[in-house]
Amino acid sequence: QVQLVESGGGLVQPGGSLTLSCAASGFTFSRLYMRWYRQPPGKGRELVASITATGDFINYADSVKGRFAIARDNSASTVYLRMNSLKPEDTAVYYCNGNGYWGQGTQVTVSS
Predict the structure, then answer these.
(1) What percent of the chain has pLDDT over 90?
(2) What is the pLDDT of residues 14-36, one digit of tens each?
(3) Contact 25, 103 (CB under 8 A)
(4) What is the dihedral of CA 33, 50, 109, 77, to 10 degrees?
(5) 78 C-beta neighbours (distance < 10 Å), count
(6) From residue 47, how far is each of 8, 26, 28 by CA, in Å?
(7) Kind of pairing, strands 10-12 and 106-110?
(8) Who contacts 60 (Cβ-Cβ below 8 Å, separation ≥6)?
């Protein structure tokens, strides 16, 4: 059974940091391209960052470049999203995606 489980969300003040984790099971994680998406309140889901199976190639949305970092640990079947210098507009439910599967999402709220 394929599972993606996100964790690490929460409430943080503007300028703060959070690290999200997505633990995968049920498929060969080390062969898969992984992505983080987010869905702000009242808006559609948008791609935030992606990383190839070996981590050689990484892409970011323009809105998060220089602030967010995606990484993966294939030995732990986990992908991470380190988020720095958070802004209120980063408030969203964050989802990981791999092999066409989605996690349940984790809420990130940036507010003073």
Answers:
(1) 95
(2) 999 999 999 999 989 999 999 99
(3) no
(4) 30
(5) 18
(6) 18, 23, 22
(7) parallel
(8) 48, 49, 68, 70
Can you say whether the dihedral through the CA atoms of 20, 23, 27, 32 is positive or negative? Answer: positive
Q: 7 phi and psi, to 5 degrees?
A: -155, 165
Instruction: Sheet containing 78-83: give its strands across.
Output: 3-7, 18-25, 78-83, 68-73
Render 51-77 in DSSP notation, one character per residue.
E-TTS--EEE-TTTTTTEEEEEETTTT
Q: Which amino acid is at 96?
A: C
CB 81 within 8 A of CB 70: yes
